[in-house]
Amino acid sequence: xxxxxxxxxxxxxxxxxxxxxxxxxxxxxxxxxxxxxxxxxxxxxxxxxxxxxxxxxxxxxxxxxxxxxxxxxxxxxxxxxxxxxxxxxxxxxxxxxxxxxxxxxxxxxxxxxxxxxxxxxxxxxxxxxxxxxxxxxxxxxxxxxxxxxxxxxxxxxxxxxxxxxxxxxxxxxxxxxxxxxxxxxxxxxxxxxxxxxxxxxxxxxxxxxxxxxxxxxxxxxxxxxxxxxxxxxxxxxxxxxxxxxxxxxxxxxxxxxxxxxxxxxxxxxxxxxxxx
Length: 276
Description:
Layout: H1 9-35, H2 54-59, H3 68-96, H4 104-112, H5 119-132, H6 142-164, H7 169-176, H8 181-209, H9 225-232, H10 240-275
Helix pairs in contact: 1-10, 3-6, 3-8, 3-9, 5-6, 6-8, 7-8, 8-10
């Protein structure tokens, strides 16, 4: 143990390594964010030619290439639908798996196996399935199903962990007070696991909103935002692409910060209830 009050050299070495890792992780995003504020005559590289919000205003004008407004709307609607579905199914499955039933093991492994299958293969398989069935792939149909194969396993695993340590005495107390199963679920179970449900919803929203591989073969003729950005990289030669990337990143951060704020408020509310 170091009793001199000085930190060992290993501390500074590891701190420097961690700082380099953070720079490697967020440096590209930070660079894109800076370049998005280029002046009207600015390009895609340094040095910057002026500083302005010109390219952000350009986003909301009619583009020669790309459909920013439509793709953003589709991605947000798809992410919200996936979020709600993931929360409902994860909660239902978590409740069901609290008791063993025939085939529960097989059903569990069939659910989580999609995590180890390459995403592009799942996208290809779902796209081919719709085509063989004579149904045109769409962002609200086949892409919706493809995204659920990505979000549901995470939601289920979270719910399994939550119910594994859930104190069943709360439900027993509600039953003793003549509460119906629905009342027990609504007024006892859900309030206790609400922070976890919010976390499942955040997983569902962010994973769907940013998903590319499971969308590329299933969205049909209308792009979601990740596909639109990918398409714009081969056609757009102005910082409007950087402005788009920065704005979409901010939307993700706002969703995360908003969720953390909700969790904080729920925690404070629970503390006040327990104190009262």
